[in-house]
Design brief:
This protein has 497 residues and is mainly α. It has 2 domains: 135 residues; 253 residues, no CATH class. A two-stranded antiparallel sheet has the order 1-2. The longest helix is centred in the middle third of the chain and has 32 residues.
Length: 497
């Protein structure tokens, strides 16, 4: 048996097995459970890289894997193309770095608390990868719920205030999942199939069915809640602010991006943009995305808590992704895809950085960041690069995703969207410049160290390494932007746009 033929399912099985065994082995020693999950995440990351290399060399750039050898449309199918293979690589990188990061962050001697935390981290990455790879709409729901339930638990482990935030997210997230079930239930009643490719073919004669209006509205609400785009973002600021600092990079970096991929797959790959009902649906998504870009930026400007500022910033940044869906041409959707990939590095890196500051000094208030660059140079490097990427300054990846969104809006004649892009980017610059000014120019604040770290290092290596990796990653996404667009994005999108 050639294991390389089973890479899509190996990614899921390896992490799932390690996650489920983690709590058991943590009974003997908490570091055994931690080491097991880190090793499984590392192995799955290697599998993801091999899968990406494999799909790039495959004729047609597409791999179909039938789970249990039950062929589609009756069986569950994983469908791998260059875009979702690259997405899985980045998800696994975020997950691996988060697990390494938490080796020092999670110091509880209670085996259930330590093992449970790493189990939830592993299950979250399983859910995210499964959603990205699956070619079955109900299987997508199953993985969505695995990811969501893991997310609720990780948020609740952040402290007293986080429990209510997690409960609020659970209630709103359940509403989103219910709308998704309504949407796919109607699609199943119309087509008799749950396989995405089969459904896409069967729907072409039924796109004028009035039920499609209800389907599109249900999916907009479902994915809007899971992405936390305006006006479905009510759960997000508290969840991001009060979640455990160790889990925040994975939650903020990946949890809201995978539903965005799912939305794009439904509207452009399953339904097809040529149909009037889909055009109206994407237009609505674009409009609420544009409003969210301004709304999120306004509220981010008013925050003193850096984590809360990043939370509202995410509302704005996810608005960019929704805007690309609304532009609905090759440039626009390419911009959305790029921003999804870039934002995983940007927001993951920034949450790694603020988590490092919290670990050493126990602070999140921006006003206490005075002269922080002298004490934590690598952490401040990641914050500055992250700020550049969020604003859209070259050579970071954030510049290029916004550039493609601009090109798409110009091509469609959506000049209001261009104005919104410019205004939102300027607002991003305002609130991030405030942070940079505090770090480099403001007088030094009196800080007391609360976390253990090596005498001549700013942070323990397991915390510092992910910060540096993601700081470099934000620049690398800009440098290799052309390769990603030409070799990964366009070959997949040309068939549907």
């Amino acid at each position: 048996m050639n294991l390389l033929e089973h890479l899509p399912v190996l990614i899921i099985v390896i992490v799932l097995s390690g996650s489920l065994l983690c709590t058991f082995f943590s009974m003997f020693h908490r570091y055994i459970g931690k080491a097991l999950v880190v090793a499984c995440e590392a192995a799955a990351f290697v599998c993801a890289v091999l899968l990406f290399a494999q799909v790039m060399q495959t004729e047609g750039n597409e791999i179909h894997y039938a789970v249990g050898n039950w062929q589609a449309p009756l069986g569950i199918e994983f469908v791998v193309d260059p875009l979702n293979a690259l997405m899985v690589c980045i998800i696994m990188l975020v997950a691996l770095c988060t697990c390494i990061y938490c080796i020092c962050y999670i110091q509880s001697k209670k085996w259930l608390q330590s093992g449970g935390f790493f189990t939830l981290l592993g299950l979250l990455s399983v859910g995210l990868c499964g959603m990205t790879l699956t070619g079955d709409v109900f299987n997508l729901y199953v993985f969505l719920e695995i990811a969501s339930i893991s997310c609720y638990g990780l948020i609740a482990m952040g402290g007293k205030r986080s429990v209510m935030s997690a409960f609020r997210y659970l209630l709103i997230g359940t509403i989103g999942a219910s709308f998704y079930l309504i949407g796919i239930g109607m699609l199943y009643s119309m087509t008799g199939s749950l396989n995405m490719a089969d459904m896409a073919e069967l729907l072409q004669t039924q796109m004028d069915n009035p039920l499609m209006i209800v389907v599109c509205v249900s999916l907009i609400v479902a994915f809007g809640i899971k992405m936390a785009i305006f006006p479905f973002h009510a759960w997000q600021p508290d969840a991001y602010s009060y979640a455990h600092p160790g889990a925040s990079p994975l939650i903020s970096g990946a949890m809201s991006k995978v539903p965005a991929i799912a939305m794009i797959r439904f509207f452009f790959f399953i339904f097809g943009i040529d149909h009037l009902v889909v055009q109206h649906a994407t237009l609505i998504v674009g409009v609420i995305g544009a409003i969210g870009m301004i709304y999120g930026s306004l509220f981010a400007m008013a925050q003193k808590d850096f984590r809360r500022m990043l939370a509202y910033s995410s509302v704005a940044q996810l608005g960019y992704i929704a805007l690309g869906v609304g532009i609905a041409n090759e440039y626009g959707v390419t911009g959305s895809y790029l921003h999804i990939l870039n934002h995983m590095f940007m927001k993951g890196g920034l949450f790694f950085a603020i988590g490092g500051i919290q670990y050493r000094y126990g602070i999140v208030n921006i006003n206490q960041f005075g002269q922080l660059h002298k004490k934590m140079p690598w952490t401040c490097f990641a914050i500055v690069v992250g700020a550049m990427a969020m604003v859209g300054i070259p050579p970071t990846g954030g510049f290029f995703s916004k550039w493609y969104l601009m090109l798409g809006a110009m091509d469609q004649g959506y000049y209001v969207y261009i104005a919104v892009l410019i205004v939102s980017s300027l607002m991003n610059a305002i609130y991030f410049l405030r942070v940079v000014e505090k770090i480099f120019i403001s007088p030094a604040a009196k800080l007391h160290e609360v976390g253990k770290h090596p005498k001549h290092a700013e942070l323990p290596l397991p915390i510092l390494i992910p910060i540096i990796v993601f700081g470099i990653g934000m620049i690398a996404m800009g440098i290799f932007n052309g390769t990603i667009v030409d070799s990964v994005a366009l070959p997949v999108l040309k068939g549907v746009l």
